[in-house]
Amino acid sequence: MADAPLSLASPGRIFVHTTFGSDTLRRSALRFALRVARILVTSSVLAAAMVLSR
In 3-state terms, what secondary structure has residue 28? Predict the structure, then answer.
């Protein structure tokens, strides 16, 4: 990230980088994203099973 071009160093990117800079925040955000993805996959599989069973 240090050798990224200056055009990428927008305030939003800097804010995101400093906000999720700590390991605990990054880990909790990853865990939350994995939980949401698992819920989405489970619901889509259930919906597909319901559609196919008709």
Answer: helix
What is each CA distance from 42 to 15, 25, 37, 47, 49, in whole angstroms?
33, 26, 9, 9, 11
pTM attached to this predicted model:
0.48
pLDDT tens per residue across span 4-51: 455 555 555 655 555 555 777 778 888 999 999 999 999 999 999 999
Ranges of each domain in the chain = 23-54
Separation between Cα atoms, residue 54 and residue 17, nearest integer Å: 48
